[in-house]
Amino acid sequence: MDMSRLTWLYGEPLSTGKLKANPEDFIVEEDLGFEPDGEGEHLLVRIRKNGCNTQFVAEQLARFAGIHPRLVSYAGLKDRHAVTEQWFCLHLPGKEDPDLSQFALEGCEVVRAARHRKKMRIGTLKGNAFTLVLRQLSHLGDIETRLQNILLQGVPNYFGEQRFGRGGNNLVQARKWANNEIRVKERPKRSFYLSASRSAMFNIIASRRLADNTHRQVMLGDALQLSGRGSWFVATEEEFDSLQPRVDSNELLITAPLPGDGPLGTREVAEVFEQGCLTDCNELLSLIKRERVEPARRAIMLQPLHMSWKSWDEATLELKFWLPAGSFATSVVRELMRQENSDADITE
Predict the structure, then answer these.
(1) SS3 state of residue 20
(2) pTM of the model
(3) Positions marked catalytic
(4) CA-CA distance, 146 to 50, in Å (whole number)?
(5) Strand 338-339 to strand 16-19: parallel, antiparallel, or no bridges (unpaired)?
(6) What gap in Å lies between CA 303 and CA 321, rounded to an integer?
(7) Are residues 108 and 47 in contact, defined by beta-carbon separation less than 8 angstroms?
(8) What is the Rg, in whole angstroms, of the alpha carbon atoms belonging to the chain?
(9) Please, are residues 234 and 219 in contact by the beta-carbon 8 Å criterion?
(10) Which residues pair with 46 in a beta bridge?
(11) pLDDT of 254-310, one tens digit each?
């Protein structure tokens, strides 16, 4: 997907710069939102890694512990080209803890381990804390202004470039699959292609609402989400007048669809609007319906929390913030600068 065609909230940035000039410029710390129980048949292992992808580390942990790879799980993928801390879950019923001091894998360090009662599954995390270093900035003053705006208004909650594969290949393959030009049997590929399809359609609708300046303006039939919650409800005519103040105060968030095999979730004016945005997406819509993907909703806007930043010099900035699970740090950076390099993060 061509991210340059999506609407910027604060206009196209003046500054160019580099993200991930080296892995230490992109630090991610996973936040589960809970502490391990301290007992149970699962062992949670927190690992700091650099230069290793998540699945590879999971496989090496399984080999070290002498268990099948499918008995090692994790909450989400983390980028190989970054310094990341994340939890892995080893299912060890009736077994002693392995001596993790002997776990040797280049680029990996065991930070902590503790027992837990429940298996950790994909999505079992609250969010991620980021520390980014932006280098070779051409207009640091413009970035400072944008950071102040983000503190007040947030950023568009776009799915980042990584979701669509290198050169948008996941979408290319999804369209071929939709047209029966290829068969996709591998479960990971099916998941990537379907996820890219839904994410692209979300981005299209979110971008249109930003372009129309209705990203914070309630439409009749909008699907609204309580801030910090996953559930949503439809804006009816009876309560319509009371909803806009709640959106203005950030109590409620306007959502856009992750389409699936079912209704979009909106009604009346909002439903017509969303259907109109998807008129050029028939291939992708037919694919997700054929594959019986469950529809969902996602907030159009994203508010980074615990933001702080400092300038190291006239062309370098260190930026820290926290994002809820499923959000992309690159969507924050996109509002600040145009990247001279485009390594997209995998953090979800």
Answers:
(1) coil
(2) 0.91
(3) 79
(4) 30
(5) parallel
(6) 10
(7) yes
(8) 21
(9) no
(10) 87, 112
(11) 999 999 999 999 999 999 999 999 999 999 999 999 999 999 999 999 999 999 999
Q: How far apart are CA 163 and CA 165, in angstroms?
A: 6
- For residues 265 and 257, is the Cβ–Cβ distance under 8 A? yes
Residues of the chain with pLDDT under 70: 341-348
Q: Provide DSSP, 112-125.
A: EEEEESS---TT--
d(CA 82, CA 89): 21
Cα–Cα distance, 120 to 100 (Å, whole number) = 19
Q: Which candidate, 298, 307, 294, 306, places its Cα nearest to that of 263?
A: 294
What is the structure's pLDDT at 344?
Answer: 45
Residue labelled with tokens 């945005």:
277
* Confidence at residue 122, expressed as pLDDT on a 0 to 100 scale: 86
Tokens of 25: 């410029």
What are the tokens at 6? 């999506």
* Pick from 162, 165, 187, 201: nearest CA to 286: 201
User: How long is the chain?
Assistant: 348
List phi, psi (to 5°) of 286. Answer: -65, -35
DSSP 249: T
What whole-number distance in Å separates Cα of residue 115 and Cα of residue 19?
Answer: 36
DSSP state of 168: G
Count other Cβ atoms within 10 Å, centred on residue 131: 17
* E strand spans, 251-290: 252-258
Give the helix/strand (H/E) hosting 197. helix 187-211
Picking from 26, 300, 340, 298, the residue whose alpha carbon sits closest to that of residue 155 is: 300
How many angstroms separate the CA atoms of 271 and 277, rounded?
10
Long-range CB pairs of 144-153, under 8 A, 24+ apart, other chains included: 146/10, 146/13, 146/335, 146/336, 147/307, 147/309, 147/319, 147/336, 149/9, 149/10, 150/304, 150/307, 150/332, 150/335, 151/307, 153/9, 153/301
